[in-house]
Amino acid sequence: MSFDACAQLVERGDPVRFRAAMAAPVAARAVLFPLYAFNLEVARAPWVTKEPMIAEMRLQWWRDVLKEVVAGVQVRRHEVTDALAEVLDADGAHALDDLVAMRRWDVYSDAFEDREHLDSYIAATSGALMGVSARLLGPADADVVADFAYGVGVANFLRAIPALEDAGRKPLIDGTPAGVRDLAQNALARLNRARRMRRKVSAAAGSALLTGWQARAVLTRAAQDPALVVEGLLEPALVADQFRLLRAATLGWWR
Question: Is the model's pLDDT at 55 over the cut of 70?
Fold first, then answer.
């Protein structure tokens, strides 16, 4: 039942990744849903309590799960952990540990120190999840996946800016129009570079990149009109969004 529980968790809590996973081949879903459910549990851990210590303990609990995966011992009981342990290897567990550790930024209201710090956050969250997912599914050039994951991560981050600011966070290093445009353009450049190198990612691994079907449109809009970011107006139009996912699922993640 653990796999079914993972799919249900993702459907309720992460509809974008749920739609992407359902657009992937059935065999890929067995890997994607446990990883996406794990990511969801970790991502929301800092937000379910106002007590930083409790949030830290929740994150540490997941780091301990990953240590158990590395050690090859029975993982502690949770609706996600059994399915996760079945698909995850030691290298993947180490990479996802970086993801959990970076989520400590979400616990507090501190701003990012600089652009490098923000880039590290994107790499350790979006990058680690997509990188592990792709590697477990099939051959893929790590740099190409990292570039694509960065673009997707920044797109998702920009969409979350209003909610983060409402929660008292300071997400943007430079919130001026020029600063937002530069962030979006840099992410778009890396996304496009990955798309040009698409032959270095196998079709099987490409299922892990389907979650980025919205990113190019979001980044393009943010670069053209940075005011849309703080106004929360980056969400794709429904019909066009459905078409993009269908095209990506049919023709490839780079479309």
Answer: yes
- The string over 121-153, giving b where at least 16 C-beta atoms fall within 10 Å of a residue's C-beta and e elsewhere, is bbbbbbbbbbbbbbbbbeebbeebbbbbbbbbb
> Looking at residues 39-53, what average pLDDT do you find?
94
pLDDT recorded at residue 239: 87
pLDDT higher than threshold 70 for residue 1: no
What distances in angstroms separate CA 56 from CA 36, 87, 104, 224, one per listed residue?
20, 26, 7, 38
Structure-token pair, residue 29:
């879903």
Q: How many CA atoms lie within 13 A of 7 on its CB side?
A: 13
pLDDT band at 153 (very low <50, low <70, confident <90, very high): very high
Contacts of 206 by beta carbon, 8 Å cutoff, 6+ apart: 134, 138, 140, 198, 252, 253
Tokens in use for 66? 């990953």
How far apart, in whole angstroms, are the C-alpha atoms of residue 217 and residue 215?
6
User: Can you state the percent helix, strand and coil of the chain, rounding each to 5?
Assistant: 75, 0, 20
Q: Which two tokens stand for residue 175?
A: 């919130």
Q: State the burial class of residue 231 (Cβ atoms within 10 Å of its Cβ: 0-12, 13-18, 19+).
A: exposed
> What pLDDT does 60 receive?
97
